[in-house]
Each structure stands twice: as C-alpha cells, then as structure tokens.
Write a structure and sequence with these properties.
The structure is a homodimer. By secondary structure, chain A is an alpha/beta fold. Chain A is 40% helix and 16% strand. Chain A contains 13 helices and 15 strands. In chain A, the strands form four sheets. The first copy, chain A, has a seven-stranded mixed β-sheet, sandwiched between helices. In chain A, strand 5 and strand 6 form a beta hairpin. In chain A, helix 3 packs antiparallel against helix 10. The radius of gyration of chain A is 21 Å and the shape is globular.
C-alpha cells in the first residue's frame, strides 16, 4: 500500500482540522438539535438577492468575467462604503473574492510567506492562523485577557509581539469569537504601531454592522487610516445578508495592489460567477431593510440568552459589544471540548469548543445567537436546565 | 506616497499577468470582434443546469455546507467516472472545488513548495506554471516539438527533466493550447516514469471528451493507473457543459488524501455553494445530450477552420487530435504578440498569442474554435482574407 501522505508538503499536512467542524460533524445529523456552532444564522438569503441571481442565470450570464469582479459590483461596493464611512471611495479599491476566506487567503499570499510572522490577537477564528500556516508563515499570538470588563486586548502586549520578521497584524473587530470590539482610540493606537513598524494591517471587520449599543456600525480602520496606510480590508457578504452559502466576499486595498491581487485571483479560482455578483450587488444596494430585520431579531435573542445564562449563576461572561457570539465559560467545567460533546448528547445543543479558537480559548464555549427568538428561547431553556441539573463538580 | 509594493512577497509580485487576458483586455469592447482568445464556447449553460440552481436557491439552500462537496454531487461524480472509464469509483475519491483552477491550486499546495520542482510539458496553459510560482516552487519545462506530425512530446526529454527535487509531473492531455493527445502507450510510459522516480502525476484531462477521431473520450490515466499510484486528477465542469462562468470543478485523488484536501479547501474558499453543486449534479447526470450537441457543432467548425486555413497556404499546423484549439504559426509573421494585436485591429478577430503559453509557443497563435459554424465560417473568412491581403514580408 502506497504511503500517499509521506510525500506531501508539511504546510499541507500541518493544516489542522477545524475544531468547529469536528463537533459539527459529531452532531450534524442529531434530530432536534439546535445548531449554534457555526457563524451563521437561521434565515435563508432574502428572496430579492436570490432573484437577482436567478435573473442573471436566465439571461445567460454564464461566461468568464472580469478577474477583479464585474464593474457594477465594484461600484456598488464603493457606494456602500461611502454611505457607511463617509467620504469618497473609488471602485479601484475593491476586488471581488470567492468568500471572505479567500479574501484572507489572497491578502496573506501577498503579504506573508516562509520566514515571515503575522500577529494575531487570540482567541480568534481558527481559519486565519491555519491560512497563515498554509503559506508557510508563522502566527505570533497576542493573547487577550478575560476579566471583569470582558475580553480586553493589551496594546503593550501587541507591541511586544512585533519582531523584525513581522509582516502584518490581523485585526478582527468586532471579534469572532469573543465579541470584543475595538474603540476608535484603540484602532488609532494599533495603526500607529503598524505605521511605526512599517507593517501591514489586515482588517477583518466582517461583523462591523453587528453592534449592540445602538450605533449603526462599529469603529473601523476607515475612521483612522488614510490613503498612505498599509491597510487591507477583508470582508464577506455572508453575515449582513445571510449569504454564508454563496461564497462571495471582497478585498479593499490600495489600488496600487490591483495587478497583484488580480493575478492572485486568476491563479486561485479565476473570478466569481457573474450571477453571484449580481446577487451581491442587490444585497449592497437594497439590503439595509433585511439587515435591520436581522439586527432586531438577533438583538432580542441576545437579550434572552444573556438573561437565561445569568440566571444560572454558573456562566462566566460579560455581554460583548459586537458580533453575534457569546464566548463563555462554565464554572466547574474545565474541559470545554468534552463539554461541547456532552451538550450535543445530553441537551441537544450544538456549541463550538473554545480551544478551536486557540489556546487562549481553552475552557470557553462559543455560541452563535444569530437565530430567531423562539429558537433562542428554547436553546436558552435547554442550556439553563442542563446547567441547573448538574451540580458543580467537587 | 507609500511604496505599497515594496513590502509584498516575491511570489505574489512575480505572479505574471495572463498573456491571454492582456490581448482580451485590448480588444474586449471592439464592436463586431469575434472573440476566440479564451477557452470557452459561445453557448450559455443549458437551461436544465441553470434551473437546478434556481430550484435550489428557491428552496433556501443558501447555508454553509460540506467542505468536500455535497454527498449527492460526489456520488454523481463517481457514477460519471464509472460510466466513462468502466469499473467502480468510490465517492470518497472526489472533492468539489471552486473551479478547475482551484483544483490545481489545492493539488499544488499539497504537493509542491519552496525547493520543489514540477515538470510541465510546454506550450501549456499559463495558469499552471503561475500557480506553481505562487507556491514558491519551480516549474521545469519539457518543451514539445512541432513538426510534420504536429506537436509531439519526447519522453526521453521528459525523463531528463526529473531531478531529486521533482515532486510532480503535470500532464494535460488533450492539451491546451496544442491539442496534443497522449496515446495510451504514452500515458503508460509516463506513469512508469513517475513510478520509478516516486513522483506524483497531476492529470488535467479537462478536454478528455473533445476528441475528433470519433472516440467517446481520449486515453486517460484511468486506463493505466491503479489505486496505489500517485495520481491526482484535476477537472472542471466548464468545458463539457458550457459552465465556464460557474467556477466549479473537482479533484479526484486517493481517499487517503481526503483530510488534507478538506483542510486545504477549508482554508482557501471553504467550499462551493450548494446551488452551484446542484447544477453540477444535473450536468453530470443529464448532460450527455448537450455534450453531443456541442461536439457536433464544434466538429463542424473545426473542419471549416482547417479547410479555410489550409487554403491560404500560409498557416503552419497539423489538425490536432483533441481539445478545441488550433495552435498555428503564420509564414512570414514571427512576432505573434504583435500579430494578435493587428488581428484585433485589422480583422476583428481575437486570438491569443503563443508566448502566453511559454517560450515554446513563440511564433504561434491560439484560436479557440468552440463556436457555432456560422460564426466560425465568418471568422475563417476574415482570417483567410487578412492573410491573403498581406504578402509574405521579405
């Protein structure tokens, strides 16, 4: 029998399985389970978005297209960003990608390779570190702390992580899984650090519309950075418009990177289907109503969950400012990986174990509360009942 | 002004622009031009394929899905391959990718990196060599020869290209751009070479259904390789079913590579939209009639083109056995890059310059004849007229 794996590249062999997918596969087919392990809600894509794709297909838009994205979508991205952040945006800054994940992959391919380091505040979405590893570069963690104010990022610790090998700092705010949301001052300080060290910022502001203090959006590097700054934004249509399954996202970067990004798209997936781009354009231009609907719905679920969990007296959390996850610990339960499996078996609940988000996440669970209130009420009840029925282990 | 490019990775900066896209962009908007530069036909995707996607969208299949592809599509791939090659195929061998290009990218990521070499018979589709470069590996060309029998591959020359750093041989048969189609004996000899050196074969048989001697398919590594052989097949739905714009393809590999491939998919685009996979499933299960229609149509166009070009007495070519390209030289015209631009301006014809396919392609032009006979008759007339009106340069 041939040992097929022996001759594979170490970067490929070392790409870790996703700790989220592991528990997902464990419980995927359980009858009645409420799945809250993935970063997606329970609403399908709104009809007006699907219909834009359907119309495009019926019109025969099934041929190769622009590697950077169709002009109409790049213009819609410029309009959307101008509405959200103010000022003018050129369509030349935008590049359509086959998912937010691919936006990250392309940005990393441009910025980091063997011998390079990328700084990552943790706990963090595991795919970022894994994608750095696939490029042969090294992730340097800047662990966040959990305390009375919830999760916080120590900027001195971030600065200490910079070495001569550092090529980029990956900043995800609002953050998955912690919900940590940088203030404008924090973003300015991080940008100053990047400027002084001559390193790039990869800004993942995918959850920027999901903030819970009534603001229309979270603080953004758009608020502090200028055209001379080395900032690459990576984003996705998945969250705002319930398009997780579509695999479409975008990069915003200095236009000088345009040819490099176009070539990297060409040699990875060679562009995104036109009919998918028509749907994405519809989402940007006509999607605010749906997003408002989502925010009200998820906000109600968020309140229900927090109240139920607080009532148990056993959950360690501080209500996070952004995103749609609760990253919490359970008193008396140190092995969150085991806990996630028991919650599948004994409570019919699908949560992701904290270790999937790096060592800093050990002992925590991630719960995605982007669901309707009825479903969330039931999930909260199950979780509270399960916690109450199990006394603290001695 | 910040020098944004100075801090980018060399692998990214060195990714070349596509020489095909260059002339395409030059002539993309010319009124009345007949575009034959890209590897796609003039038919939109058949309605039954589009409708499968539309039904899936209407049914709300817009969520995250299996990283390896939905089980139904992997089963359809197993059935399709069993029909085409005989024998049994396990769905475990198949992995759905976001284009044939991504199939190549993922295979290369598993097989080659810095310090490694990949052998490539040339002229060849430029994206393969470019994707090797993005991985930091090195392409070693095995130049083919053009003579009275058309393009031929010297197997001794291929063997000479193997070094201790060789990780894989990329074999594209039927080949883009030359139409060269390996015999079963040639494939067996190449497999023997790979076995004796312990290197992988990456088999790109994307044009395997486009052969012009009446056979249902070209010889395949499926005909000679066994389950212990290090062969990875990369393929796409683009050509057989006119789905170039969909960006969906597949990898067939030993199931032992399954976890590695799943992880590499996870960390590049995280899967393919379910509704796209429903369309791909329909194409495999119900697409033979459309493929027959395409083959008759393109076969007629092929004959028209060859006859018209032979009549000029100035075109150097031998009718190739497979694929849907003519890769030909023009007596008295050595600079095919310049010639391609003049054909845009003076004849309203879009062809790709041979240098886009490597140094071995210098002096040649690639013409994609996957068009209807009416359009091809007009294109052939324009080309013949243009050649007749321009006497040989002294």
């Amino acid at each position: 029998m041939t040992d097929f794996l022996a001759s594979l590249r170490p970067e490929a062999l070392d790409a870790p399985p996703s700790g989220i997918v592991e528990v997902w596969n464990y419980g995927r087919l359980r009858e009645g389970l409420i799945p809250m392990w993935a970063g997606e809600g329970d609403l399908p894509t709104p009809a007006f978005v699907c219909e834009a794709a359907t119309r495009s297909l019926a019109a025969g838009e099934t041929f190769y297209t622009w590697q950077r994205g169709v002009p109409e979508l790049r213009e819609a991205l410029a309009r959307y960003n101008a509405r959200l952040y103010g000022g003018e945006f050129s369509p030349d800054r935008f590049f359509v990608t086959a998912s937010g994940m691919q936006a990250i992959q392309i940005a990393l391919t441009a910025l980091a390779g063997p011998g390079d380091e990328v700084i990552l505040p943790t706990p963090a979405w595991p795919n970022f570190a894994a994608a750095v590893g696939v490029r042969g570069a090294r992730v340097v963690e800047a662990p966040m702390s959990f305390g009375n104010r919830g999760w916080t990022l120590d900027l001195d610790r971030l600065a200490d992580a910079v070495t001569p090998a550092t090529k980029a700092i990956f900043m995800n705010s609002p953050a998955n899984p912690t919900g940590w949301t940088a203030t404008r001052d924090e973003l300015a300080a991080i940008l100053d650090l990047a400027r002084s060290k001559g390193v790039w910022i990869v800004a993942d502001e995918v959850y920027g519309r999901f903030v819970w203090d009534g603001s229309p959006r979270a603080p953004s590097f758009h608020d502090v950075a200028g055209p001379d700054d080395r900032v690459v934004f990576v984003n996705t249509f998945s969250k705002n418009w319930a398009m997780t399954g579509w695999r479409v996202g975008w990069i915003e970067a200095p236009p000088q990177l345009g040819d490099v990004i176009e070539n990297l798209i060409q040699y990875s997936t060679s562009g995104v289907a036109v009919f998918v781009q028509r749907a994405a354009t519809a989402a940007l231009d006509h999607g605010e109503g749906f997003l408002d609907h989502q925010l009200r719905r998820i906000g109600e679920s968020r309140a229900l969950l927090m109240e139920a969990l607080a009532g148990t007296g056993r959950a360690r959390f501080v209500p996070p400012a952004g995103a749609f996850y609760l990253f919490f610990g359970v008193e008396g339960e140190d092995d969150a990986g085991d806990l996630a499996l028991r919650l599948v078996d004994e409570a019919g609940l699908g949560l992701a174990p904290g270790l999937a988000f790096g060592r800093a996440g050990a002992g925590f669970l991630r719960l995605c509360y982007a669901r309707g209130p009825d479903s969330m009420r039931e999930a909260s009840r199950r979780l509270a009942d399960w916690l109450s029925a199990r006394p603290l282990r001695a």
